[in-house]
Amino acid sequence: MPEDIALQLLAGALPQLEASFRNLPPARAGQEPAIDAMAAVLSQVAERMADNYPYFHPLYAGQMLKPPHPLARAAYALAMGINPNNHALDGGRASSRMEVEAVREIAKMFGWTDFLGHLTSGGTFANLEALWVAGQLAPGKRIVASEQAHYTHGRISAVLGLPFTTVSADRAGRMDVAALEATLQEGDVGAVVVTLGTTATGAVDPLHKVLALRGAHQFRIHVDAAYGGYFTLSSALGDEAARAFACIGQADSIVVDPHKHGLQPYGCGCILFREPAVGRYYKHDSPYTYFTSADLHLGEISLECSRAGASAVALWATQQLLPLIQGGEFARGLRCSREAAMLLHQKICSDSRFLSPFAPELDIVVWAVRAGSVAASSRLAQEIFAAAAGEDLHLALAQLPSRFFPPGSWAGQEQQSSVTCLRSVLMKPEHLDWLEEIWSRLCRVTAGVLAHPTANHDGAARGG
Question: Total structural domains in the chain?
Fold first, then answer.
C-alpha cells in the first residue's frame, strides 16, 4: 500500500473541524461505542478488501483506475465528519460553495466563464443530463455517436426515449466525419456526441471537423471528455488531437470525470453547459428543500437529488494544491502519462512479436500478438494477460475491429470482425518511471507463453 499521507493530514485537520462545534453540548447518550467490536469488524473489512488488484501501484497498468491524491482522500474523510449533502444549501452550505468554485475552475480550463454546471455521481449521469437537455431542445430528434463512443450513450438515449444511431469509426478509432455528414443529410439529428478520449483506445474524435458541419445542419455538439478532458492542459499532444482540444470551448456541453484524471475518489463527474439559459429545463418547486436561502441551490440545476458534498470538498482541495493550468504540476503529470504511453508504443512497434494499429493519442496503448490467424492472436493475448497477472503486471483486454490493423496482418483477417488485444492505460505519472520494469515483465511473460502455448496457435511468431 502507498504511504498513508492522507491519515497524517486528517489527524492534523480533524481537531480543527471539531473545535468549530465546541459550543454545542455533548450529544452522546448511552454506552460508549464498542471500539473492540468495531475494530474486529474493520479487520474483517481489511481482509476482504485484500481481494483486489493493486490499483494504486504502477504495475497496475490495466483499466482506467488512478489512485486519489492523498489530499483528496484526507479532505473527503474530513468532510465526512459533517457528511454534507449538496442538493440544498441547508444540507451542505460550505461544500456547495466549494462545488461552485471547483466547477468554475474546470469550466475555466475549457475557456468558459459564463456557463451552467455542477458535479454529478459520475460520467454516466453527467452524460445523461447533457442528452436530456439535448432532447428538451430538439424533442424526438436523433442522438448520434461514433461506434467507438461509450456504450452508455445508447442506453441513456433509450432511457430518455430518444432515437440513437452510431456512425463508423476510421482506422484510427476516431469518428468518420464523412459517415457523420451522410447521416446529418437525413435531417433528423438533434445532437452529436463527440468523444475526446474513447474508452477502448483513447482516440480523439475530430471535433474541429464536426464543428464545421454544425452551421449547415443545425445540431448540438456534446463532448464526452469523461476520460480525456484534462488533456486540454497538455502541450504534448499530436497535431490532430491538439486541434480537437483547441476548440472544445465551442461545444454546447462538456462532460469530464474528476474521478479519472482529476485525482478524485469515486464518484465524481462534472457536466457543463455553454448556455446558462438551459437551466430553465431544470426548474422545479421543492418547498420543503429550498426555503433556507434565496441563493441558487445546486439541486435546482441538477437532475440528481442527494449528492455527496464530500466529493466537492475533495475536488476543491485538490485544485487548490494543483491548479488546472498549462505548465503546472497537474499538467506535468498528464505529460508523463502520455510520454509513458508513447514509449511503450515505440517498444511494441520494434518487437516482432507484437503489432499496434496506431499510436496513442492520449495515454492508452493497444496492441495485438502476431500469429497465423485472428483467432490465434486473440488466444495468445488472453494467455499473456493471465500470465502477466501472475507476475504482478496487470494489463487489460479489449475487443477491437480487425480492420483497425493493416490489411494482411493475419490470414483471413477480412473474415474476422474483431480481435482480442492487450490494452494498457498508463494514467499514473509514475508509469513513466516504471516503464522499463513494465516492459521487462511483459517481455518475460510473452516469451513464456510463446514457448509453451496451451493450444495450437497457428504459427505464432517466436521472434524477439
Answer: 2
Q: Same structural domain for residues 230 and 157?
A: yes
Is the domain of 368 the same as that of 264?
no
> Helix or strand or coil: residue 280?
helix
Per-residue pLDDT tens over the stretch 225-261: 999 999 999 999 999 999 999 999 999 999 999 999 9
Q: What's the pTM value of the predicted model, to 2 decimals?
A: 0.93
Where in the sequence is the domain holding 115, given as residue range(s)?
Answer: 79-286+293-321
Same domain, 88 and 162: yes
Grid cell at residue 124: 454516466
Cis peptide before 267 (omega within 30 of 0): yes
Mean local confidence (pLDDT), 63-70: 96
- Asked which of 15-19, 346-350, 373-377 is least confident by mean pLDDT, the reply is 15-19
The whole-number pLDDT of residue 456 equals: 44
Query: Which residue, among 278, 225, 270, has the nearest Cα to 249 in the 3D structure?
Result: 225
Residue 233: count of CB within 10 angstroms of its CB = 21
Q: Of the candidates 207, 288, 274, 287, which has an alpha carbon nearest to the alpha carbon of residue 244?
A: 207
Residues 350 and 220 in one domain: no
